[in-house]
């Protein structure tokens, strides 16, 4: 895997289908996070942002996230016990890898983790999806 091409720094198949054990984060000023950790049996997915470029980096670590800086991420607690589904990587028009999208619902994207203002902002993707230009639009 070419680390210069993607923000995903490990083989996602190592965690795909794994149940989520906990979701913790290091809160930043405002409503963002410096880092978010999604704990599975096969390690912790660590989502972080580069403060200089707002690029999002996603790695897998065996480290325990036990310091007092790590707090439960309230809006992701409904993921506990669910299996990780697909993931996506977003690259903006300037070539920055500033978005990581994750699902606990198979192939339906649920949360976008976006590097903004040197921290992670999380967006829930809840809109019903229907392709534009389908036969239903006629």
UniProtKB/TrEMBL annotation:
Question: Pfam families annotated for this entry?
Answer: DUF6334
User: What is the designated name of this protein?
Assistant: Uncharacterized protein
């Amino acid at each position: 895997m070419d680390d210069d091409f993607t923000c995903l720094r490990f083989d996602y198949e190592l965690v795909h289908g794994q149940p989520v054990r906990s979701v913790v984060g290091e809160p930043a000023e405002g409503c963002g996070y410096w880092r978010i950790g999604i704990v599975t049996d096969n390690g912790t997915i660590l989502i972080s942002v580069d403060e200089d470029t707002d690029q999002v980096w996603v790695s897998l670590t065996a480290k325990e996230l036990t310091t007092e800086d790590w707090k439960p991420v309230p809006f992701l607690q409904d993921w506990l016990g669910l299996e990780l589904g697909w993931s996506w990587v977003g690259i903006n028009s300037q070539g920055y890898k500033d978005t990581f999208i994750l699902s606990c619902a198979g192939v339906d994207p649920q949360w976008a983790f976006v590097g903004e203002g040197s921290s992670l902002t999380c967006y829930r993707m809840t809109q019903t999806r229907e392709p534009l230009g389908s036969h239903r639009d006629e």
